[in-house]
Write a structure and sequence with these properties.
Blueprint: E1 3-9, H1 16-26, E2 31-37, H2 43-48, E3 55-59, H3 65-75, E4 80-84, H4 91-103, E5 109-116, H5 121-138, E6 149-153, H6 154-160, H7 171-181, E7 186-192, H8 204-219
Parallel strand pairs: 1-2, 1-4, 2-3, 5-7
Antiparallel strand pairs: 4-6, 5-6
Helix pairs in contact: 5-8
Length: about 220
């Protein structure tokens, strides 16, 4: 298996079936793993209609994006592993481009960054605050760590999946922190965000939790 695509999903009944079918049509020789993270709508029922074509992991309760991605990592078998959001806000073309950028390079990690996108004033302030906090604490020059499209070589995933602890949206920062600790090659990949089907499950309380988790990630000696 050459490519694994991981989709964390939560209460995505409105679009999950069509989006996953689109992934199946485009990447028909790839492993597609959808993690239903404790949805309380019909997400799992919609996914079950595609059970013969994809791998479905179901959490009995909502644990968070980080927990869903970690479950996907443990089940992934592809040489290249990509995760993206269930609403596919970056489209199918960018997933394929990200795959080829990893395939044809020595990079261990390739992360999307949004160079043209609209967001609410609250989310803009949140992203700005997170970026400043990351620059101060980690001394990174990585912009837009929270873009929901990232790809990895499988050997890197195997190195870090047992060390991952974050269950929420700061999983992206945790993964990049582990990549930096292990001196992995990281490349950025510009993406344009589509507004079609684009949704967000981040609430104000999640933002507060993220700030505390960033501190925990930075000063957690168990990563080393």
């Amino acid at each position: 298996m050459d490519l694994t695509i991981i989709i964390p999903a939560y209460n995505a009944e409105q679009f999950i079936q069509n989006n996953v079918q689109g992934l199946i049509n485009r990447f028909n020789n790839s492993e597609i793993i959808v993690v239903d993270d404790g949805s309380n709508d019909k997400t799992f029922d919609k996914l079950s209609t595609l059970a013969d074509k994809i791998k479905i992991i179901k959490h009995s309760q909502n644990l968070g994006k980080g927990a869903a991605i970690r479950s996907g990592f443990f089940s992934a078998s592809g040489d290249i592993v990509i995760f993206t959001d269930a609403d596919l806000p970056y489209g199918l073309d960018n997933i394929e481009k990200l795959y080829w950028q990893l395939k044809n390079s020595q990079n261990d990690v390739v992360i999307g960054y949004r160079h043209r996108f609209k967001e609410s004033f609250f989310r803009h302030l949140t992203h700005l605050a997170i970026n400043v906090m990351i620059e101060v604490l980690f001394l990174w020059n990585i912009y837009d760590t929270q873009c929901g499209l990232k790809g990895f070589k499988k050997n890197f995933i195997d190195e870090i999946k047992t060390k991952m602890r974050v269950n929420n949206f700061t999983v992206d920062i945790e993964i990049l922190h582990l990549a930096k600790i292990k001196n992995k090659k990281i490349e950025r990949f510009p993406v344009t965000m589509s507004t079609k089907n684009s949704v967000t499950t981040i609430k104000f309380k999640d933002t507060i939790i993220m700030f505390f988790d960033i501190l925990k990630i930075r000063f957690n000696k168990n990563y080393f």
